[in-house]
Amino acid sequence: MTILGIETSCDETAAALVEDGVNVLSSVVYSQIEIHQPFDGVVPEVASRNHLMKILSVIEEAMAGRSLDAIDAVAVTNGPGLVGSLLVGLSTAKSISFSRAKPLIAVNHIQAHMYAPHLGASIAFPYIALVASGGHTLLYRVESFDRMELLGSTIDDAVGEAFDKAAKVLGLGYPGGPLIDREAKGGDASAFDMPRGLPDTRQDRYNFSYSGLKTALAYRLRDRRLTPELVRDAAASFQKAAVEMLIRKASNAIGDTGIRRLVISGGVAANSFLRERVGALKAEGIEVHTAPMAYCGDNAAMVAGRGWADAQSGRFADMSVEAFSRLPNVVKGKRSVERK
Ligand code: KG4
Ligand code: ZN
Questions:
Q1: pLDDT in tens, 290-321
Q2: Alpha-carbon gap, residue 175 to 34, rounded angstroms
Q3: Which residue stretches of the chain are H helix?
Q4: Residue 152 gets which letter from DSSP?
Q5: CA 134 to ligand 2 centroid distance, Å
Q6: In this structure, how many other beta carbons lie within 10 angstroms of the beta carbon of residue 317?
Q7: Does 160 sit in the ligand 1 pocket, CB within 6 Å?
Q8: Which pLDDT tens digit goes with each residue over 181-201?
Q9: Crossing angle of helices 159-169/228-257, nearest 10°?
Q10: Which tens digits make up the pLDDT trace of 13-28?
Q11: What are phi and psi of 230, to 5 degrees?
Q12: Residue with CA closest to ligand 1 atom 5
């Protein structure tokens, strides 16, 4: 089964062809990063307009001369994301589905990220899934593609968002994750004492908090001249604290459930310190799968892959499917799972 995947939830216009959920025939990502850089962040209206300008050529490139009649279905991200951006991909997918009589599959962006590691390896269930992106920081217990339970989430900023804000404090620019990653390589991670986030109480064993980390960084740097060395040390200290928090909360879930398999996805999964830190988990006998580098950030191969999993369960959409901006069970400023 060959699925055309389409992704336009934020600032990447992407299309991909994936066969049977594993064989990536093509994956094209047009990133708008340079367009949003002068604004130090994504401007939603600008993002939608650029998706509109690029979507058809990106799909054409992904098709690589094949006819749309050669695909078996169209999978498209319908949320969560920027609604104006999502609508561009969603209406394009609906048009292809309608005009070529191909089934339409509406894919959840978080589930698509969670699928990305499956594009690089054959992974058995159950597992603990850590999604670390610019918009979300989530821990799930995953029994199958269809059955997953949300264990915890961030109660304020997402980890990628914290990287982006920290990079601003350090005067590095946008997007912050890769820039902090780069600076941290030459820095001393023990130079700054950083907060450890939410304590591992019963209520917050699987919840994250990142807004304090960024504020702490700003305080530590107050009235100091940002020399290159100071920036490197601050980046390394921030990165270590941010990643250790991810690892600690994931380890809580692994320890409590006895599920010794961890699957990591999302833009922050590209972080080199995180990927290195995973080695220590493996040494403890935990099976860890990190999304392949090409599929950490937003892409359409993961959408086509997740679409394939949805198709296996007969979950197809119709023309009434809508775009949505937020996950219903994750509300900013609230703990996702209240535990006594
Ligand atoms: O998954 P993604 O592409 O978009 C969302 O769905 O949010 O994630 C983008 C986020 C940004 O915050 C970016 O700074 C972060 O992933 N990121 C990184 C790295 N590469 C991207 N964070 C830390 N280290 C990296 N190497
Ligand atoms: Zn994403």
A1: 999 999 999 999 999 999 999 999 999 999 99
A2: 10
A3: 33-36, 44-63, 83-100, 109-115, 159-169, 176-184, 211-220, 228-257, 272-283, 301-312
A4: E
A5: 7
A6: 22
A7: yes
A8: 999 999 999 999 999 899 999
A9: 170
A10: 999 999 999 999 999 9
A11: -65, -40
A12: 134
Select from 111, 115, 163, 185 the residue to mutate for testing ligand 1; criterion: most ligand atoms less than 8 Å from CB.
Answer: 163
Q: Pocket of ligand 1, candidates 33, 133, 169: which has the most ligand atoms within 8 Å of its Cβ, to mutate?
A: 133
Question: pLDDT tens for residues 140-186?
Answer: 999 999 999 999 999 999 999 999 999 999 999 988 999 999 999 99
Phi, psi of 36 (to 5 degrees): -90, -15
What is the spatial distance between Cα 183 and Cα 6, in angstroms, rounded to a whole number? 33
Q: Count Cβ atoms below 10 Å from residue 314 Cβ, excluding itself.
A: 6
**7 C-beta closer than 6 A to ligand 1:** no
| pLDDT for res 340 | 54
**Structure token digits, residue 100:** 């070529």
Residue 339's pLDDT is 65
Q: Answer yes or no: is the C-beta of 82 below 6 A from any ligand 1 atom.
A: no
**Given the structure tokens 């890769």, which residue do they identify?**
178
Identify the residue whose tokens are 């980046």: 235
